[in-house]
Amino acid sequence: MVTVTTPLKAESRDLNFIYNGGHRALKGINMPLYEKKITALIGPSGCGKSTFLRCFNRMHDLYPGNKYEGQIVMHPDNTNVLGAGVDPIEVRMRISMVFQKPNPFPKSIYENVAYGLRVRGERNKRIIDDKVEEALKGAAIWDEVKDRLHDLAFNLSGGQQQRLCIARALATDPEIMLFDEPTSALDPIATANIEELMTELRDRLTILVVTHNMQQAARISDYTAYMYLGEMMEYGDTDRIFTNPTRKETEDYITGKFG
Amino acid sequence: MEIQISDRLAKKFRRNLIERGIEFLLLLAAMSAVFTTIAIVCILLYESYTFFEHVSLRDFLTDTQWTPLFADAHYGIMPLVSGTVTTAAIALAFAIPVGTIGAIYLSEFASHRVRETVKPILELLEGVPTIVFGYFALLLVTPLLQKLIPGLPTFNMLGPGIVIGIMVIPYIASVSEDAMRAVPMSMREGSYAMGATRFQTAIRVVTPAAISGIIAAYILAISRAVGETMVVAIAAGQQPNLTFNPMDSAATITAYIVQVAMGDLPHGSIGYQSIFAAGLVLMLMTLFFNLLGHFTRKKFREAY
Amino acid sequence: MNTEASTLKDLDAVRSMIKRHKLNDYIFGAVGLSFIMLILLTLLVLFIDLIIDGYPKLMSWDFFTSFPSRRAASAGLLSALVGSALVMIITFVSAVPMGVAAAIYLEEYAKKNWLSEVIEVNVTNLAAVPSIIYGLLALGLFVYILDFGTSILTAGLTLGLLILPVVIVATREAIRGIPVAIREAAYAVGATKWQVVSQHVVRYATGGILTGVIIGMARAIGETAPVITIGALTFIAFLPPSPVTTSAPFLNFDWLWSGFTVLPIQMFSWLSRPGADFHVNAAAAGAVIIVVTLLMNGIAIRMRYNIRKKIKWQ
């Protein structure tokens, strides 16, 4: 079904997720995440795609009463991200995240990018300087901000803020990067920039992206998963999913009969 | 037909007139705030003006004694200012750290249940009258301090300072907590997603994001501590004393006003006018802090 | 970029670092909780101490029905209780209608111009003016210029001005909570602005306005400094003329001009006596003040929480 040459970076095994209050938002999700590929999650709103994404870095732990069942295993060390003995902070240091709405901190551009390093206890200014520059270049925003690194990040435009947030996530060399509808708050030009950036990042790390926009998934992703009502309906090569879906529900969604 | 139209017009006219009249009355009520401010400024300036006809501004600012009621009258405001500043400084040195840490704890660390229980209690405590705190300062805190610090006089600035601190802690904690709660969750998530701990998120992200509200809380607390009257009038003593030593007894501006008002000074005497001059200084001090608060808030305006 | 291998090798270092960082969490959590508990406990101890100190007086009915006296044993709160009640009537009458009207103007009528800006700034500033300054204003304006003397009227008006910002702010908040849709619904059936405001806006905002009024009144009951500044006497061994009479017109306003004392002033005077025997009276008066103000504030805060929770427009 899928080319076997690419190694696995992570996979979810029989993942269930129950929100505080008892709503079962994910039902037995199995999905591989291939290394240095982009995997897109699509589906109508409320299907659980964001919930699934946020399991990878244990964001649900921030709110009391949520419950995971099953596993998300990271390779090559076989760590179960959801394991009881695994600290969510450790997971978040390996898997970083970019949010739906740009959420820079009330700090300078420089300090936003340096945040992850400082949180890790890095104090060497030279190392931080280098990493910040590298991350800003990686996020294709260096040229726009290099002369005003100490300006407040809020003064940037929405698209720039989102690229700054990507730089922030990039600065700590994550193994996986999660994108939660990263362009839904942006205009078309900024969206195109972010999409281009994501395809460039594919060379360096593994990407999982939730998108509300099917065309976006078709444009940038290598693999696509279609979710509906908390279930994984179909997973496969993006090309195949969009040209030749096996399930009728997927086809209906993709052709716009539904959703 | 014609009659009907003019009738309707008249009705409409009357209706408009009433609406206008009501609007004018409401405006008048709203203007009461402006009138009050003007009245305060005019009264203080007017009485101070006659005061300063007798006392030179130089003496007022440089003389080291304040004894307007004595035969050998001196009119140096500095002893009163030093008392005011010292008690307020003690209070804030105590209240700002405790109140801020309490607020951060409530907003970022406490469980929902603890927060929902403690928050209303803090709001409740904001309403306790200051006269009651005067009782604590005189009869509880100072005797306790005297056991710890031998030789501490019955009237001193340390006890009232601490009590004013206790008094404004609920205020600082509650207002700062409101400001931190207003920081959007997405910002916290951004920090946690970078692998930050609770403490790092609270100190490095939430507190800076809420800083304008926190500073506003501090500024209002300063105004309160500087303008606090009953606690110092009861427990700090009535002798103006140019000192910044917390162990000394001293009078504040407010305590002096109370002392004079309790006496039987004739209207128009220099003693009577001196409380308005003192009040003017107090007003200028609080105005300074309020303006400071206004501008810091503008500078740090939250952008989220 | 780090290679996979180095990341994994670092994993142990990362884990020990996280442990170290999380220690701060525990320390701060413990410190924060103990600070909060310490403050609440301190205040609880203070209040309990006050009630214990005043207990002998609080338990005697005579304390509430006697005038002040030179002898601590027979000195009571009667004139202060009556004085506080009468002063509060004036405060209520002067502050509440004016405050509500001002808030209605600012929320419903004011256009965005310099005038409304000036009013806004004044309201915010007045809320931060020390209470004793209001005392000086009243001393100059009410006592001497308007020649009301040191009377119940003067005290009531002074405290009325003092709580005006409280009433205005609370009313505005209550009015702001009412959705535009309700206003539009009323306008749609041809109501005038005043009809909309008086019949809809104010009615739905009543709960919120009431909480502000209660909090303001509680503050006025406990205020001491401005009332001392206008020269209130501390030794009042008589009651003001009764507001209600047995013969027509059944109302009498002589009490407005009467001398008076109020609860916090009575407490202050007992507290500033050198002897310890009057301190029992002071504690008992303090306990009464605390119970009254905490009760009023408690009711208001409870109401506010209920309003915030219950009313969900839309």
Plain-language structure description:
The complex is a heterotrimer of chains A (259), B (304) and C (314). In chain A, the strands form 2 sheets. In chain A, strands 6-7-8-3-9-10 form a 6-stranded mixed beta sheet, sandwiched between helices. Chain A has a 4-stranded antiparallel beta sheet with strand order 2-1-4-5, with helices on one face. Chain A has a domain at 8-102 and 176-254: P-loop containing nucleotide triphosphate hydrolases (Rossmann fold, 3-Layer(aba) Sandwich), CATH 3.40.50. The model of chain A has no long low-confidence stretch (mean pLDDT 89). Chain A contains 10 helices and 10 strands. In chain A, helix 4 (125-138) packs across helix 6 (158-170). In chain A, strand 1 (8-18) and strand 2 (24-34) form a beta hairpin. Chain A is globular and about 55 Å long. With 259 residues, chain A is α/β, with parallel strands linked by helices. Chain B is mainly alpha-helical and 304 residues long. Chain B has 12 helices and no strands. Chain B has helices at 2-54, 57-62, 78-109, 112-125, 130-148, 158-181, 185-193, 198-209, 211-227, 230-235, 253-262, 270-299. In chain B, helix 11 runs antiparallel to helix 12. Chain B starts with a helix and ends in a 5-residue tail after the last helix. Chain C has one domain (60-64, 73-310): MetI-like (MetI-like fold). In chain C, helix 7 (180-188) packs antiparallel against helix 8. Chain C has 11 helices and no strands. The two termini of chain C are 52 Å apart. Mean pLDDT of chain C is 83; it is low at 1-6. Chain C is mainly α. Chains in contact: A-B, A-C, B-C. Chains B and C meet through helix 1, helix 3, helix 4, helix 5 and helix 6 of B and helix 1, helix 3, helix 4, helix 5 and helix 6 of C.
Please render the helix and strand layout as text.
The complex is a heterotrimer of chains A (259), B (304) and C (314).
Chain A: E1 8-18, E2 24-34, E3 38-42, H1 49-56, E4 67-74, E5 79-80, H2 88-94, E6 95-98, H3 109-119, H4 125-138, H5 142-145, H6 158-170, E7 176-180, H7 188-201, E8 206-210, H8 214-220, E9 223-228, E10 231-237, H9 238-243, H10 248-254
Parallel strand pairs in A: 3-8, 3-9, 6-7, 7-8
Antiparallel strand pairs in A: 1-2, 1-4, 4-5, 9-10
Chain B: H1 2-54, H2 57-62, H3 78-109, H4 112-125, H5 130-148, H6 158-181, H7 185-193, H8 198-209, H9 211-227, H10 230-235, H11 253-262, H12 270-299
Chain C: H1 4-58, H2 61-65, H3 78-109, H4 114-127, H5 131-145, H6 152-176, H7 180-188, H8 193-222, H9 225-229, H10 263-271, H11 277-310
